[in-house]
Specification:
By secondary structure, the chain is mainly beta. Helices cover 10% and strands 41% of the residues.
Length: 180
């Protein structure tokens, strides 16, 4: 069970303008990455099917999902088969994010620009909401790496392949699949 936010010292000692972000690698019905940003006391969440890219030319689909409790940012483990999202979860990356401008307004307006300070994902990023159609339950967004000193072309070697392990447990993808 994840720790409660009020018991997690990392959530109490960071500067006010820095907020938690986490990327969880999730082996559910399909392997995907859950990108989460702390905002308004919860974790705003997006499913990124192909995982993040450090290449500014690559736009990754990010499907918004339900908010999660802040304590979920520390979760690694197995979600039982009879529960929603059943499968193995590791923390692939974590750190803090610093919004540019008012993050609540950016979220409402569908354009968040921010800096990530993580173990793998660093530098400036943007989340941009795409046009939503009536039949879509969850709005689609694009996760885009901005051009900066941390960006690089990933034509043949994406970061998800270069650094597949978790940041907390250092579990490899092979060891995770064996536990499923």
């Amino acid at each position: 069970m994840p720790k409660q936010a009020d018991q997690d010292p990392t959530m109490q000692t960071r500067p006010f303008h820095e907020r938690v972000f986490v990327v969880q690698k999730h082996w559910a019905s399909h392997l995907h990455y859950d990108f989460r940003l702390e905002l308004s006391g919860t974790l705003k969440s997006w499913v990124v099917p192909k995982g993040p890219s450090m290449d500014p030319a690559v736009r990754r689909m990010a499907i918004e999902t339900e908010d999660h409790a802040l304590a979920y940012s520390r979760f690694e483990g197995t979600i039982p088969r009879d529960q929603y999202g059943a499968g193995r979860v590791i923390i692939w990356d974590e750190g803090v994010w610093i919004p540019e401008g008012d993050p609540q307004a950016g979220y409402r307006n569908g354009h968040l620009t921010f800096t990530l300070k993580g173990g793998k994902m660093r530098g400036r990023w943007a989340l941009i909401r795409m046009q939503t159609h009536r039949h879509e339950k969850h709005p689609p967004w694009l996760l885009i790496k901005m051009r900066d000193s941390h960006a690089h072309v990933e034509q043949h070697d994406p970061i998800i392949d270069q650094r597949p392990s978790g940041v907390l447990s250092e579990h490899s993808p092979q060891s995770m699949m064996m536990k499923l």
